[in-house]
TrEMBL record:
This is Two component, sigma54 specific, transcriptional regulator, Fis family. SMART domains: AAA, REC. The keyword Cell membrane does not apply. It comes from Oleidesulfovibrio alaskensis (strain ATCC BAA-1058 / DSM 17464 / G20) (Desulfovibrio alaskensis). Keywords: ATP-binding, DNA-binding, Nucleotide-binding, Transcription, Transcription regulation. Residues 398-411 have a biased composition (Basic and acidic residues). GO terms for molecular function: ATP binding; sequence-specific DNA binding. PROSITE patterns: RESPONSE_REGULATORY, SIGMA54_INTERACT_1, SIGMA54_INTERACT_2, SIGMA54_INTERACT_3, SIGMA54_INTERACT_4. The keyword NADP does not apply. Residues 4-118 form the Response regulatory domain. SUPFAM superfamilies: CheY-like, Homeodomain-like, P-loop containing nucleoside triphosphate hydrolases.
Length: 477
């Protein structure tokens, strides 16, 4: 089973050039030229992303975007066309398209748009196709969950400033949900029916980021084979998020400052000044005040961005929200993967409350996905969180499945005597490790890359462990 799946809703010849590269890189690629073929691939394979032409015989991309708008678990949709316009891009982005590209498709760009590990429902209902919609139950992962006073203050301020055009600077550690708050600001504004466009300033070098933001004219540099609309144009009338703004080069910062002050852009290689109406939000995981002092960030741009500052608290500062969020994510993955209802064991709750959470909400979400998949019929225990026995807690709840093994009582245990590692019996930690690795491989249908990611280890570590088990004469798939 491929860990990365792409559906092209387009004539086959439009993807002929990059199809061999995608297949060689390990992508599962589907090409459909009508709704029936697209529905079959979506239901069977659960694509990570859908690339669609604006229209085909008997099909308009509006049909796809309407389904996507009703179901936030639906794959992101990127529209590509050989004859684009700013008006069409604005309309489609306002309807929920992830992006709008001009042809020809570039392999590296397509590759960068595909999530590394897609989420595929274990048993998608028959109606989960383009022809019939399945409403998503409450709790779709886009809500802001939490009642801690620090979160309540940020939400209250965000709600108050959302209707304005003021620039907002959202700061916080990585994984605290800065983009989610940016989307909340957009949804709560009078621009909610317009485009929301996000740009990761840390992902591209300066010359590419400038083109990405402001667009370029054909022939303006090597590889500029056609005019490209920049994100400012695509977001005109809506909201533009500049993610990790601190990583932007100083030279580009000066050009951004002009755009914010004058409300106009110049495409790379262009001679025409273009007016844009964009509400700008920015995020950073650094202290911009310190970067200004160190000469890494322009002071005038900092003042221009920091009109409304929002600081998001780290997860470790949010008290009871940690367990509340954990249960929210567990319920989400139970639904998405078609799992039986799952609960947290008491010791697992204690572990969640005492852990420092350096990766914040993102780390918690990933951990709950792993634990939900490994728990079987539950309950979720600490052993489902981590594979490294040295990092397991020393506390235990009486009657839970997480009592620390006493080596004197473990020596007699054998793999053959253990049929269910979570049945309450005490087994050696190395055997627990082996069982969890096998369970991870089972959950991912033997895909080692996905299993390693699920288990929180490298593919090399997983391969070494499997070789070790084979050398010991154990049966390994």
């Amino acid at each position: 089973m491929s860990s990365r799946r792409i559906l092209f809703l387009a004539p086959a010849q439009s993807v002929t050039r990059i199809f061999p590269q995608l297949k060689e890189a390990g992508y599962e690629v589907g090409i459909a030229e009508n709704l029936k073929g697209a529905s079959a691939f979506i239901r069977k394979s659960g694509p990570s992303v859908i690339f669609s032409r604006p229209q085909l015989p008997g099909y308009k991309v509006e049909d796809l975007l309407s389904v996507s708008a009703d179901d936030s678990s639906f794959p992101p949709v990127i529209i590509f066309t050989d004859k684009g316009s700013a008006e069409e891009a604005e309309r489609f982005l306002g309807m929920g398209a992830r992006d709008y590209w001009l042809e020809p498709l570039q392999f590296e760009k397509v590759k960068a748009a595909v999530p590394a590990v897609p989420r595929t429902p274990a048993s998608a209902p028959a109606s989960s196709t383009l022809g019939g919609r399945t409403p998503l139950p409450e709790g779709d992962g886009s809500r802001i969950i939490g009642s801690h006073p620090a979160v309540a203050r940020v939400l209250a301020l965000a709600k108050q400033v959302a209707p304005s055009r003021a620039t907002v600077l959202i700061s916080g550690e990585s994984g605290t949900g800065k983009e989610m708050f940016a989307r909340y600001l957009h949804r709560s504004s009078d621009r909610a029916d317009k485009a929301f466009v996000a740009v990761n300033c840390a992902a591209l070098p300066e010359h590419l980021l400038e083109s990405e933001l402001f667009g370029h004219e054909k022939g303006s540099f090597t590889g500029a084979i056609a005019r490209k609309l920049g994100k400012f144009e695509l977001a005109s009338g809506g909201t533009l998020l500049l993610d990790e703004i601190s990583e932007m080069d100083l030279g580009l910062q000066a050009k951004l400052l002009r755009v914010l002050q004058e409300g106009e852009i110049d495409r790379v290689g262009g001679t025409e000044t273009i007016k844009v109406d964009v509400r700008v939000l920015a995020t950073t995981n650094r202290s911009l005040e310190d970067w200004v002092k160190e000469g890494k960030f322009r002071q005038d741009l900092y003042f221009r961005l920091n009109v409304i500052p929002l600081r998001l608290p780290a997860l470790r500062e949010r008290g009871d929200d940690i367990v509340r969020l954990a249960r929210f994510f567990i319920a989400m993955y139970v639904r998405d993967y078609g799992l039986p209802p799952l609960e947290l064991a008491p010791a697992a709750v204690q572990w969640l409350e005492e852990y420092d959470w350096p990766g914040n909400v993102r780390e918690l979400q990933n951990l709950m996905e792993r634990a939900s998949l490994l728990a079987g019929k539950g309950p979720i225990t600490v052993s489902h969180f981590l594979l490294d026995p040295d990092s397991w807690p020393v506390f235990a709840d009486e009657g839970s499945h997480e009592q620390q093994p006493d080596q004197e009582h473990c020596d007699g245990a054998s793999p053959e005597s253990v049929t269910d590692p979570f049945s309450g019996g005490v087994i050696p930690l190395h055997e627990m490790e082996r069982i969890m690795i096998l369970k991870g491989l089972e959950q991912t249908s033997g895909n080692r890359t996905m299993a390693a990611d699920l288990l929180g280890i490298s593919v090399r570590t997983l391969r070494n462990k499997l070789n070790e088990y084979r050398s010991a004469g154990l049966e390994i798939p």
